[in-house]
Amino acid sequence: MKEKKEAVKKKAGATAVKATAEAPKDAVAHQPKKHSFFDDVWDVVRLIPKGRVTSYGAIAKYLGTGLSARMVGWAMNSSMYADKPVPAQRVLNRNGMLTAKAHFSPPEKMQKMLEKEGIKIEKDAVVDLVKHFWDPAIELGYN
């Protein structure tokens, strides 16, 4: 029985070596990149015009996952790893609060970036949220 297990291991190892030897060295580079939920979120955020903001929930609803606002937040927290810049400062909670400011360095940077775009902030919230709110479902239409 022990000899049989060894033979199986040896055969499996030889197959793996053969497959590796036959595959081109840059095979991984030629595989198409998969588009993830995070990529979809980042694509929507890149469409938010300067001087406008949206919410995690509005993005989730637009993407057809209305109960996934928290997942949108996770995507935004990972936006620094996106291949193209993502204006993460433009995404707020449903009340217009700068809940993600702790993820900026320093935390005041989120507010300063929004103020530079002409958005007034008081007590970590956007003043006149209705005026500045950008709803992707309205602006881009439902998918």
Can you give a write-up of this model?
The protein is mainly alpha-helical and 143 residues long. The protein has one domain (37-139): Arc Repressor Mutant, subunit A (Orthogonal Bundle). Helices cover 43% and strands 6% of the residues. It has seven helices and four strands; from the N terminus they run H-H-E-H-H-E-H-E-E-H-H. The strands form two sheets. It has a two-stranded parallel ribbon with strand order 1-2. Strands 3-4 form a two-stranded antiparallel sheet. Helix 2 (37-45) crosses helix 4 and helix 3 (56-62) packs across helix 4 (69-77). The model is unreliable at 4-20 (pLDDT under 50).
What's the structural domain tally?
Answer: 1
Q: How can the largest sheet be summarized?
A: 2 strands, parallel
Number of helices: 7
Query: How does the helix and strand content classify structurally?
Result: mainly alpha
Dominant shape: globular
| End-to-end gap | 58 Å
Low-confidence stretches: 4-20
Beta-strand content: 5-15%
Helix-strand sequence:
HHEHHEHEEHH
- In CATH, the architecture is Orthogonal Bundle
Share of helical residues: 40-55%
Question: Taking strands numbered 1, 2, ... along the chain, how are they ordered across the largest sheet?
Answer: 1-2
The CATH superfamily bears the name: Winged helix-like DNA-binding domain superfamily/Winged helix DNA-binding domain
Radius of gyration: 23 Å
Average residue pLDDT? 84
Q: According to CATH, what is the topology?
A: Arc Repressor Mutant, subunit A
